[in-house]
Amino acid sequence: MDRLSRRAFLASSTVGAAGMLAGCLGGGGDGVSWQVHTAAEGASHYNMSAPLVELMNDHSEDPSISVTVSSSDGSVANMRMLGEGNTDIGTSVDQVAHLAYNGIGPFEGESVDMRLIARAEVVGQYYVVREDSDITSITDLDGMNVTPGPEGGGTTGQHQTLMDAFGIETEDTYLTYSEGGRALRDGDVDAWFIFHGAPVINAFSTDGENLRLLGFNDEEIGVVQETFPWTTEAEITPDMLQNHDETVQVMGTNGFWITTPDKDADAIREFVEVATQNPQPIRDANVNSTEFGPEFAHYDFGIPYHEGAVEYFEDEGIIE
Measured between alpha carbons, how far is residue 173 from residues 55, 191, 282 in Å? Predict the structure, then answer.
């Protein structure tokens, strides 16, 4: 019986014990237990990863995989944990992974040897200002007090790199995303850097008339893509956000599951196959993962994929 037919046969069975941390090893016939570090509970990376607990428990077989999904400070912290050997899988956006892999920006002198597993989402990211603010473009942020997210989070690293690219300086206040939204509404900061799908962006549900998205014009998108060539363009439309009545062009970033090269190839292949062949729970859990599936999961931006993931994508005909 081949891999796919075996998987169909076992689709409703339960294999292993989800959530156990014992033996975070790279592979083996008795199964593996991995810890996945994501972001704050309820954040996009947490949401896209939470379904992995049941998916791996219900469908993995060769080897069986159990995972624990943990909250963390986000992309920068996750990449550091990977480099230090303190997690098995970490989520990150492409820009932060690029900085970590190349040992630049917040990772100066501490490059992380990593391998991509799969792309899980595309996220629109943008700055939010108050409706009565004089800030109308990215360059207007020069000298302003910005909350880019929690220290160690992915948005924090992205914000600093963006400000460097535009040649401007901001006074940064590191707050959780929910604290950042409140600080903006209360007038304690001038701008709030946030990713679409974050639960706290529902501030627009009640305060939309008092808040405004700061879009990226074509020239600004060009600057972003010179810094991060793989960055995509994204749009936030009225149907995507309550109390928002215009289409705004924003920065689109890709979110990945990432590991280290020493993880067992068969186990990584199984992880990718289970996730991509059973995509609906991940799509349902995360507004930014609605296109997730086998072809979507492979997105090349310069960091190598793990050999187990490469084997899967080759067998699926997605790469040659």
Answer: 38, 10, 32
